[in-house]
Amino acid sequence: GIQVEQSPPDLILQEGANSTLRCNFSDSVNNLQWFHQNPWGQLINLFYIPSGTKQNGRLSATTVATERYSLLYISSSQTTDSGVYFCAVRGSQGNLIFGKGTKLSVKP
Amino acid sequence: DTGVSQDPRHKITKRGQNVTFRCDPISEHNRLYWYRQTLGQGPEFLTYFQNEAQLEKSRLLSDRFSAERPKGSFSTLEIQRTEQGDSAMYLCASSFGKGSSSGNTIYFGEGSWLTVV
């Protein structure tokens, strides 16, 4: 099956810093989503981004499907950005396949 | 617009008991998914419905697990004879998709935490 690898596994930032999270996947995918899981477990959709670039406030994402990777950019990080960021790709069956996530801690 | 809702949010049960979780998807979403997540891991796919038809089941879904979506709206996930290894968060998600297409954005509920003691 499709493998999804995220890096780095852990990231500690000072408030105000920028960061880039990476997601590599092993095969062609139909689409890709980025999620933020808050400390209470809620998975919040950030981007649906099978290809190209999207921006939403301080967050932006780029997927290069032909090279099988996606990047999530967080600018001017805030403590509320802390949590786990997941990349998930969808294979032929329709279900999402998740990476192991990047745990982000933003310090005040 | 209500999101995906799950009930109960937390459940503590004794080993060997049966538990049932309910999921109400976003209205008009024809696809419904169940996932399981343990600490430090990403969610793992369990099963998937399109309308009332269960189209895909993961090997993680042992014989003790059963999921239904009888009217193509809400779904239930039952775990029989629970074991300590079943302790996890059970996530429900929904989306809208046509035919065999991969569909659009998948939206998740807040999850149901299960602790088996």
Number of H/I helices of chain A: 0
**Integer-rounded radius of gyration of chain A:** 13 Å
- Reported by name, the CATH topology of chain A is Immunoglobulin-like
How many helical elements of chain B? 0
**Low confidence ranges of chain B:** none
Amount of beta strand of chain B: over 45%
Shape of chain A: globular
From the structure provided, what is the oligomeric state, counting identical versus distinct chains?
heterodimer
The global form of chain B is globular
Largest sheet of chain B: 7 strands, mixed
The CATH class designation of chain A is Mainly Beta
Number of domains of chain A: 1
Q: What is the first-to-last residue Cα distance of chain A?
A: 40 Å
Biggest sheet features of chain A: 6 strands, mixed
Outline the secondary-structure elements:
The complex is a heterodimer of chains A (108) and B (117).
Chain A: E1 4-7, E2 10-14, E3 19-25, E4 31-37, E5 43-48, E6 52-56, E7 59-64, E8 69-74, E9 83-90, E10 96-98, E11 102-107
Parallel strand pairs in A: 2-11
Antiparallel strand pairs in A: 1-3, 3-8, 4-5, 4-9, 6-7, 7-8, 9-10, 9-11
Chain B: E1 5-7, E2 10-13, E3 19-24, E4 31-37, E5 44-50, E6 53-57, E7 65-68, E8 75-79, E9 88-95, E10 107-108, E11 112-116
In short:
Chain A has strands spanning 4-7, 10-14, 19-25, 31-37, 43-48, 52-56, 59-64, 69-74, 83-90, 96-98, 102-107. Chain A has 108 residues and is mainly β. In chain A, strand 4 and strand 5 form a beta hairpin.
